[in-house]
């Protein structure tokens, strides 16, 4: 018989989450029991155990936001940096868990989380431990040119990342940001495409070697990436050419002449509009295939977000994402899923496109944001170029952020945070459905059901949306918008029912004030 | 009268470099005296004080490189990552100062320094201190969306960076890599150009807003960036279009139709070939102006490295770089200096283009590598776009690396490392000049005189160059190549006369073996 003892000794305010199991001669059973026991605990208090001293509610002391101290610091910052987008100046020392503090002493419940980039709340004890590790210090002070002089830690670091890769993906190429990850994936896609045309082991021709030095075909072929209307894949020049969110993101920059197909626009709630939404899928799929067949520059790759995030939280159905696999296979187009904003747990699965169970696996999956590290996953070794140094740069990723990514992945799995996100998401969504009955006009097209806390809705106008976001801040909730009139919720995975309740109370109050 | 006492207490093997000055009633005088005293010490032993336990010489135990343990680890790494470019697997724990260790126990004097990216040697005590700081831990665990929710540390962090900015530059935009920095600088250049055409405060037209969503002019104007033959500005799509180093860096990727002018090819030694080199400058300048006037797509910006590094350590004269300022002003072209590889001290000045004393200041200066952080400096506030969110992304740089950059800059100044690099560079160059007399064929076009340790030469063929680099490794020196047949020296700024002597001995031995 086993004796299970929860060693609840407080160490610097953090309750250790490991259980001591004694008495069993079978160590394997022990471990399973620990795991089960942990998961059942996780169901009730994963976050509270991270943050026993988390504030119990928001607190706004200033009459306007940014408050006077933030304003002063923003105007100082503005002398050396374009500080116009600053909402307030944060005090990360005083931020904890799901709460972000500012220099005026305001404390907001954070449902924006650095544009969906904080996975485990502020000052997470497990990340602090990683930040203090010897591996981290080495990564910071002796940053290698990873591919030329890899450290002895690198294989482990990448294997750890791959533990969390989407099903079917078993290799990774690191990058530095979502835009970078997407552009490196484009490069992988272009090389793959040309290697199929040319033959993987065929040498480059003299004509290719000569023309490429003048940026001309055939060495610099006029290939294209197909993306979607309202897509966001980054703001560099190639990622920017595939981005289609807002004119302001692209104006005045040269762009590649690449096509955009329409992304389905569904009617909500989904379960009441199945036929109409299927017809919408088919209309858009037809357009995708037509563009692939007719576009002036051959379409080498297709990139899509499983939920378009900057573009307004537009969802794509399982049928749509699977049909794109069929079309891309038929026309020899590389299929890239952009999980930069949707990935790493916020939808209740580690990767959002897992909901679509795409078969066979897509070719490349890009990640960034909540993983802090960035890059793309793949499985077909033919995505490794025929020669070294074709996919290459000095740093090939950021070793410090690879360590953070590994720690984030471990916490998500060990703490059962995916289950928590699903559970809290259901709780939050049903409360919003209730509120929608009261304010149907101000809570239009509520979406994200069964997609964890990745929830959004529309207001009638952009002006009202912006006003609501301001009122929410003044009432203590930091929330972001996307597209022109959408509110998007992007809390950390540490967001619990109690936080959802506070948010819905604040939202209800704010709706009245709107 | 002052009593100056050097507190030479050993603390964990590191001799503190601060001096205690007592007895003066005038604290200001004290500080000046400390600084003078420190500089005079720096002249003799800045590096030895960092690394009192640095190995005294290289040690190669294995018969081939990579050694058997490196080989095994590379083949493991290759299962998850393209490890073909790996020279060996490094053991950064055992690397110190100017020496890099590998997992086979080999110890190399490092004159490559992670493709010119390690400023202060391995495991630098001052960087370790920064890596352990509370600010660093916050930056790692609570990475902000810098422009939306700047931390209270950000203004200081950026001001610190700006302390080291090239003369005339007083604002900065952070990025994540050299390629990223260059592309963000291109964006700044394109917006500047169009704002001059349109009027800084003029609203975008409906036609612009519509066309940009289809990647078409006028919203996506067909503007170009002029760069140079053999240039290297990165490997993303726009930076890649300006790069002209090798076909392999560019093949199979779509490129913008941007022009490349010829970069001057000088005869060495420079002092014996002044007239011929001036004629070469004029020939290339004429081509630059012709391309600006005649290129099919208007040239909005010009980007140049003051020494083309990947492209073969090609130097540009003061006259050439100043004349480009005159041409860019005449034709309203934004002048960008790429200091990614040349910046941060290796040439003996903090920024290499300071040697050219360009008047008026260039418009944008990009940096990365030895600063670990990346970005561009500028001075004209008109390079801040007319609206917020035009130059923007989630992270806007890496706060952890900004802290490292500040620490690197401080050490370079406080330790007198620029003077050290100049002094050691002169010592090394004169020894190489001696060796050149013995091996004129294997030490062709020796260059980098009075440019610190930023020294290079050519071998007759690429094959011989590669062979020499291998022999050098087997004899204990890690050295890199560039272009097709060039050897480039890129040690850390902590490289001293004694290291130069070891290198020249190893090189002499290796030349005999070649």
TrEMBL record, chains A, B:
GO cellular component labels: mitochondrion
Swiss-Prot/TrEMBL cofactor(s): pyridoxal 5'-phosphate
Family matches, as PROSITE patterns: AA_TRANSFER_CLASS_3
Top-rank lineage group of the source organism: Eukaryota
UniProtKB keywords: Aminotransferase, Pyridoxal phosphate, Transferase
GO biological process: gamma-aminobutyric acid catabolic process
Enzyme Commission (EC) number: 2.6.1.19
GO molecular function, one term: pyridoxal phosphate binding
Reactions catalysed, as given in the entry: 4-aminobutanoate + 2-oxoglutarate = succinate semialdehyde + L-glutamate
Family: Belongs to the class-III pyridoxal-phosphate-dependent aminotransferase family.
Subunit and partners: Homodimer and homotetramer.
Name the UniProt record assigns to this protein: 4-aminobutyrate aminotransferase
Originating species: Zygosaccharomyces mellis
Annotated gene: UGA1
């Amino acid at each position: 018989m086993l004796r299970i003892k929860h060693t609840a000794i407080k160490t610097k305010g953090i309750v250790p989450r490991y259980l001591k199991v004694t008495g069993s001669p079978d160590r394997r059973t022990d471990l399973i029991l620990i795991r089960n026991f942990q998961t059942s605990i996780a169901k009730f208090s994963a976050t509270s155990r991270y943050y026993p001293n988390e504030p119990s509610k928001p607190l706004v002391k200033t009459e306007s936001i940014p408050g006077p101290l933030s304003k002063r610091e923003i105007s100082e910052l503005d002398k050396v940096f374009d500080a116009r987008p600053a909402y307030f100046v944060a005090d990360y020392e005083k931020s904890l868990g799901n709460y972000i503090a500012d220099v005026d002493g305001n404390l907001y419940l954070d449902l924006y989380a650095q544009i969906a980039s904080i996975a485990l709340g502020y000052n997470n004890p497990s990340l602090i431990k990683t930040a203090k590790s010897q591996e981290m210090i080495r990564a910071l002070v002796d940053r290698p040119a990873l591919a030329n002089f890899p450290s002895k830690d690198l294989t482990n670091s990448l294997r750890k990342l791959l533990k969390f890769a989407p099903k079917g993906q078993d290799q990774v190429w690191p990058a530095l940001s979502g835009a970078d990850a997407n552009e490196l994936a484009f490069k992988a896609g272009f090389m793959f495409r040309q290697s199929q045309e040319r033959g993987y082991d065929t040498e480059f021709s003299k004509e290719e070697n000569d023309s490429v030095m003048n940026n001309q075909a055939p060495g610099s072929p006029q290939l294209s990436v197909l993306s979607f209307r309202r897509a966001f894949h980054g703001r560099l020049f190639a990622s920017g050419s595939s981005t289609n969110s807002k004119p302001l993101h692209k104006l005045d920059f040269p762009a590649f002449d690449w096509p955009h197909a329409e992304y389905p626009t569904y009617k909500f709630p989904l379960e009441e509009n199945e036929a109409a939404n299927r017809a919408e899928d088919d209309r858009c799929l037809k357009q995708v295939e037509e563009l692939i067949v007719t576009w002036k520059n051959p379409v080498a790759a297709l990139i899509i977000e499983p939920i378009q995030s900057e573009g307004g939280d537009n969802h794509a159905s399982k049928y749509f994402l699977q049909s794109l696999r069929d079309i891309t296979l038929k026309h020899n187009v590389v299929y890239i899923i952009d999980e930069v904003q949707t990935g790493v747990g916020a939808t209740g699965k580690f990767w959002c496109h897992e909901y679509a169970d795409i078969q066979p696996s897509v070719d490349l999956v890009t990640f960034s944001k909540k993983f802090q590290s960035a890059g793309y996953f793949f499985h077909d070794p033919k995505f490794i170029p025929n020669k070294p140094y074709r996919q290459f740069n000095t740093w090939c990723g950021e070793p410090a952020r690879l360590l953070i990514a590994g720690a984030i992945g471990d916490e998500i799995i060990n703490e059962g945070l995916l289950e928590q996100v699903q559970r809290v998401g259901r709780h939050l969504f049903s409360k919003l459905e209730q509120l929608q009955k009261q304010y149907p006009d101000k809570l239009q097209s509520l979406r994200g059901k069964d997609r964890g806390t990745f929830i959004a809705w529309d207001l009638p106008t952009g002006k009202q949306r912006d006003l609501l976001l301001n009122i929410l801040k003044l009432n203590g909730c930091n929330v972001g918008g996307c597209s022109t009139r959408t509110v998007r919720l992007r809390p950390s995975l540490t967001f619990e029912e109690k936080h959802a309740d506070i948010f819905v109370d604040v939202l209800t109050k704010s709706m009245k004030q709107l």
